[in-house]
Amino acid sequence: MSDLRERARALDAADRLAAVRDGFVLDDVVYLDGNSLGALPVNVPGRLDDVVRREWGQLRIRSWTESGWWTAPERIGDLIAPLVGAAPGRVVVGDSTSVNVFKALVGAVRLAGEGRDEILVDAATFPTDGYIAASAARMTGCTVRAVAAGEVPDALGARTAAVLLNHVDYRTGRLHDLPGLTAAVRAAGAVSVWDLCHSAGALPVGLDEHGVDLAVGCTYKFLNGGPGAPAYLYVRGEHQAAFDSPLPGWNSHAEPFGMRPEYEAAEGAVRGRVGTPDILSMLALEAALEVWSRPEVSVGAVRAKSLALTDFFLECVEAYVPAGRVEPVTPAAHAERGSQVALRCADAGAVMEKLIAAGVVGDFRAPDVLRFGFTPLYLGFAEVERAAKVLAETLG
Fold it and tell me: Distance of alpha carbon 163 from its chain centroid, rounded?
């Protein structure tokens, strides 16, 4: 144990991202649930205070122009764009992930064109994605077929319109092959839709580079935007002129203040907007994203530390936890691992309650998974070692 503890200290001392931790509101708890809700950045309360007191309280309606409220969805989208490997003008922020999945899926079927009437969905997807896919299918006259992500290439056919996939499996932390699967979908003439909720802000995505058609993601996990922070929609440049959102609203109109009865979509990703944006949470997100402007912070640096943290945690678990008590279900291979570690444990629900009471916060996924998320911007190696030790004591 002392050897691992000393190694943790050395790793923390050499960590180039260690100072970034001071940019978050933290305490003595080992917080391993940033893949559900990221920690509060220290600059957000002050920013929100200014938004409420000055921009809303004093400027009131003038803030739509003078404070840049109207252009916030695109402006903040351009802050997220480099984190997911997208050019400016391809990401728009607003609405929830579920709403954006609906826009993207229906839009994908419409892009696919006549003769394609099947939607493929990752069989292990987060349930809401499946619900939305079923609704989108009813609206477009399609059928839905659930397939394992790795089996998508063999499942594709001439009737496949759209394929909805998760970049990282929310239960197991498995990282799926976005480049390979996207290429297979494209070769089949279908349209790819990726859910980036568990990858954006934790690892490279490469939307433009790998030819992804449409993508969605939330901002309250690894992007630390806060509870209920708005999600985002990515529309590939070549699809923007033809992207037909099923939710046309006045905010996405080419002339929003013209109040014309006929709808005419705006140019670019802006057509992914619907109604009035949720300014308070959107501007909290904008403040939270400022951490990515620090010179030491990059997606590459975050990914390298994420892999080092999860490697070290798995090593500590193997050393400390009684043999056979837990079983890692997150892949050991770096190319297949997101930024979390999932451990199968027979009494996982009760174990997680005890861990939280002991100051190690992760979460439980039914029926038997302990899930630990690793946010490299504010997590250190000594905390990882401590978490594994507390886990061993809890299971002992």
Answer: 18
